[in-house]
Amino acid sequence: MGQPQEPHHRLPFGNPFKKTSSKGSQLSQRPLFLLNAFEFALTARLRKLNPKDKHDVLSLAWMVLAMESLCETHTDIKTLITELDLPVTGWDEKWIDVYMDISVKLLDICNALSSELLRLNQGHLLLQCALHNLESNTSEKLVRACSSLDSWRQNIGAKNPRLENCKSILEGLVDSVSLPKVKNSAKGKVLMQAMYGAKIQTVFVCSVAAAVFSGNSNNLLDLDVAKTTTWAQAFSDLQTNVNGGIRDIFSLGKFPVLKELDEVYTAVKNLCPMIQDGKRPIEVEAFSNSFSDLGRRAEKLAQGLDFLTKVVDGFFKIVLSGRDALLCDLRAPDTLADPFPGSNGKRFVR
């Protein structure tokens, strides 16, 4: 799955929320309080994602944490909009167009990740079949087990075209990060700065997920964010550690790179020579230990895939219901714009 390395470049982003010196440009106390609360929470999430070891990010556990963090940030955006009491009639047409374009790309990425998780889950069925056959000591069952394990190795080594296309989708997201400047609207400025932070976190997490599951570090993006945001340093530290660690590991040509997947791969590699050509294992104790080890690691992988699938599905629903809510609000002026609803899909009305 490893790919040749290509030079990577930092992608510059200007801060879409720049204070001006003209009269009336300063934020009122309430919107500023809401913005500070949002950015404080975002900073804490970014720091929580910073791995203690570079190998941690190449795990399903970190992926689950990262996707859960995204869901929390997008839910906070929903809460912020509710607190700002910013009606859809106050939205600039460009803001709506930008959000709609971004949401389509996020749905595409969710679909790509879901397709890969489904593929890996289908591979787990092959492991279950092999483990079932290994419970018997007959030559016929051992041959079937070998066949299932060989099929599983081919499954995880196959390319997923939908993941290969993530790079172009991510680059499209990058183009959407810089938002139009907001004039004469304190609430609008707060919303745009908060959405700026949410988009940076989203692009980063999605690029890491695409890189890890495709086995291609070219899917990683390096984002150069505005230093004036309170969360800039936390994001810079996170990005440096995560992207740098991933590139270091990928440069070794290791396969597979996902931690839980690699553990199963190693267990399969240790077990296969013992049952080659359907021969009964000579070292019974060694075979029993390898069999048990494969069962434990396969179960751990299955649980991780299940957890991540549910979180990705939840994030998909957040984005999808957000689009639906905003479209409904555009048709009904007396409702409150809700572009990032929570996973329960509920909308708030005035």
UniProtKB/TrEMBL annotation:
Cell compartment(s), UniProt: Membrane
Entry's transmembrane regions: none
Region (Disordered) residue spans: 1-24
Membrane topology: Single-pass membrane protein
GO terms for cellular component: membrane
Pfam families: ROH1-like
Major localization listed first in the record, in broad terms: membrane
InterPro entries: ROH1-like (IPR008511)
Keywords carried by this UniProt record: Membrane, Transmembrane, Transmembrane helix
Positions in coiled-coil regions: none
Assigned protein family: Belongs to the ROH1 family.
PANTHER family: BPS1-LIKE PROTEIN
Protein name: Protein BPS1, chloroplastic
Lineage: Eukaryota, Viridiplantae, Streptophyta, Embryophyta, Tracheophyta
